[in-house]
């Protein structure tokens, strides 16, 4: 996974020449202290770079231009310690292509009641300087995050943490390549969509390779590489007996390892950040990739089944956003309901491909028949997922726009063994409750494919949607169906 510390956000403070040198030196000094403190804070996962105070339209334009072309710069934090007349910002904001976070803070926490004088007031002006800046961004219809509070407050640092992670995910999409092996699952609607529009809007490209291209790479994998991987399987998972060396199905484990390595080399050679496959197009393959797809996801690649490139890309972005956090992110599918009125919940799973980054404990490595695809039994990792706060997210193509749909859920630790369901699985309760959560999801057109996250919040995805300039719809503890339907109607009217 990528190291977020290699990425930079630039701390840009606005002012003007009216104040004179002494005040401007103070502005520079204060903004350096704040930027340095952010950079040293473990809650902010990226590098924070202080930029000299901007005081003219030219300086503002130049720093925005520089940010656009700086490879490691993933966004700007802007703060108006003093008043920076905002017409000076129009030229720069018009060309700025990186996300912007407006930090509405003040260098001092408290008003020094006894000592406060006009000099103090002159310097500590963000209460009105930041309003001027807010106006021009709203006037220009620029979506951004606004964080309010003293810069040392935990809440402020937590929001900055969230925003920088969202910016890292957004940055990762720019120029990213995703490969589809085969096309969409025949006749399926929600996994399809406009890849040209997606590339314009999201910055990533999606292209197809015939399965034969992957099969060729798989067939070139060496026995030595397979043996090394088999050792890793043995070390990392509890292998079921029949898969062990000398036993009946060991050859299937060898084939699974060959498929995984073929996938890995194909993705590495093509510089891809994720992939899709489909059980309807496996010509020349012995098994549907099970453990291989699972382990590629665990290594940080985006994945979704049945040609679902939108979910594959979302899984990748969410893995980047969650980098270094406890818990994981996985491709997921709502599968079966427990409608018992006492304890309603959803069983989430997929035929095979759930990422072990969300596993509770050591996964078992098993082999069982698969009802579809007409290939040999696929090897897969089987595990449960522990309880706790989580969410499901889905990107759908509405025809005239993309919609990001998020449902807060509470994952539930399993209380029953599922001896006849040999796949990775998760139980969760949708918020605000089963009936409302599911009804809202269906009204919003959310897919049966999602990215399930243990370490991201709705706020990460709301910030991400602002950066992508797409619709974001949240189903949370506060959701009620009447308001939710109105929100969908109003959103429909806002994009025509
Ligand atoms: Mn599916």
Topology at a glance:
Elements: E1 8-13, H1 21-40, E2 47-50, H2 57-69, E3 73-79, H3 90-95, E4 100-104, H4 118-123, H5 126-139, E5 145-148, H6 154-173, E6 177-181, H7 195-202, E7 205-209, H8 211-219, H9 223-236, E8 238-239, H10 250-269, E9 274-276, H11 291-298, E10 302-304, H12 309-321, E11 329-338, E12 345-349, E13 360-367, E14 379-384, E15 388-397, E16 402-412, E17 425-430, H13 434-443, E18 449-453, H14 458-468, E19 471-475, H15 481-494
Parallel strand pairs: 1-2, 1-3, 3-4, 4-5, 6-7, 6-9, 8-13, 9-10, 16-19
Antiparallel strand pairs: 11-12, 11-18, 12-17, 13-14, 15-16, 15-18, 16-17
Helix pairs in contact: 6-12, 6-14, 8-10, 9-10, 10-11, 13-15
The structure holds manganese (II) ion (MN).
Walkthrough of the structure:
- This protein has about 500 residues and is α/β, with parallel strands linked by helices.
- About 40% of the residues lie in helices and about 20% in strands.
- The chain contains 15 helices and 19 strands.
- The chain has helices at about 20-40, 55-70, 90-95, 120-125, 125-140, 155-175, 195-200, 210-220, 225-235, 250-270, 290-300, 310-320, 435-445, 460-470, 480-495, and strands at about 10-15, 45-50, 75-80, 100-105, 145-150, 175-180, 205-210, 240, 275, 300-305, 330-340, 345-350, 360-365, 380-385, 390-395, 400-410, 425-430, 450-455, 470-475.
- A six-stranded antiparallel β-barrel has the order 11-12-17-16-15-18. The chain has a five-stranded parallel beta sheet with strand order 2-1-3-4-5, sandwiched between helices.
- α11 links the parallel β9 (about 275) and β10.
- The longest helix is centred in the first third of the chain and has 20 residues, at about 20-40.
- Manganese (II) ion binds near residues 305, 306, 333, 350 and 449.
């Amino acid at each position: 996974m990528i190291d977020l510390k290699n990425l930079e956000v630039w701390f840009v403070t606005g002012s003007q020449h009216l104040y004179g040198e002494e005040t401007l030196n103070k502005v520079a000094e204060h903004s350096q202290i704040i930027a340095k403190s952010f950079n040293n804070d473990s809650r902010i996962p990226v590098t924070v770079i202080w930029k000299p105070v901007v005081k003219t339209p030219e300086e503002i334009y130049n720093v925005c231009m520089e940010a656009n072309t700086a490879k490691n710069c993933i966004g700007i934090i802007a703060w108006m310690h003093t008043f920076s007349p905002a017409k000076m910002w129009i030229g720069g904001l018009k060309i700025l292509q990186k996300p912007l976070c407006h930090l509405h803070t003040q260098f001092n926490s408290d008003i020094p009641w006894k000592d406060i004088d006009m000099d103090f007031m002159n310097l500590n002006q963000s209460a009105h300087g930041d309003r001027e800046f807010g106006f021009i961004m709203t006037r220009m219809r620029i979506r951004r995050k606004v964080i309010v509070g003293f810069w040392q407050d935990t809440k402020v640092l937590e929001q900055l943490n969230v925003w920088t992670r969202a910016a890292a995910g957004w940055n990762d999409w720019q120029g990213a390549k995703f490969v589809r092996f085969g096309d969409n699952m025949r006749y399926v609607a929600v996994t399809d969509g406009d890849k040209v529009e997606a590339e314009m809007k999201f910055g990533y490209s999606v292209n197809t390779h015939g399965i034969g291209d992957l099969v060729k790479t798989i067939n070139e994998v060496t026995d030595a590489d397979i043996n090394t991987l088999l050792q890793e399987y043995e070390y990392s998972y509890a292998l079921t007996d029949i898969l062990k060396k000398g036993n009946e199905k060991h050859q299937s484990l060898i084939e699974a390892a060959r498929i995984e390595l073929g996938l890995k080399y194909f993705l590495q050679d093509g510089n891809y950040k994720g992939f899709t496959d489909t059980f309807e197009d496996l010509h020349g393959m012995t098994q549907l990739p099970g453990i291989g797809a699972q382990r590629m996801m665990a290594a940080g690649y985006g994945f979704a089944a049945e040609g679902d490139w939108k979910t594959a890309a979302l899984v990748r972005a969410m893995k980047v956003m969650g980098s270094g956090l406890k818990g994981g992110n996985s491709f997921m599918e709502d599968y079966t309901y427990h409608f018992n009125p006492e304890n309603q919940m959803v069983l989430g799973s997929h035929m095979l491909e759930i990422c072990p980054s969300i596993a509770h404990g050591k996964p078992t490595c098993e082999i069982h028949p698969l009802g579809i695809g007409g290939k040999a039994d696929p090897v897969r990792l089987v595990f449960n997922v522990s309880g706790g706060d989580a969410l499901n997210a889905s990107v759908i193509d509405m025809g005239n726009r993309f919609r990001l749909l998020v449902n807060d859920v509470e994952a539930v630790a399993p209380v029953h063994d599922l001896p006849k369901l040999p796949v990775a699985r998760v139980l969760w309760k949708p918020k605000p409750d089963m009936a409302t959560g599911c009804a809202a999801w269906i009204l919003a057109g959310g897919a049966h494919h999602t990215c399930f996250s243990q370490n991201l919040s709705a706020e990460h995805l709301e910030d991400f949607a602002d950066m992508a300039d797409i619709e974001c719809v949240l189903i949370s503890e506060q959701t009620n169906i009447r308001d939710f339907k109105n929100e969908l109607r109003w959103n429909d009217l806002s994009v025509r």
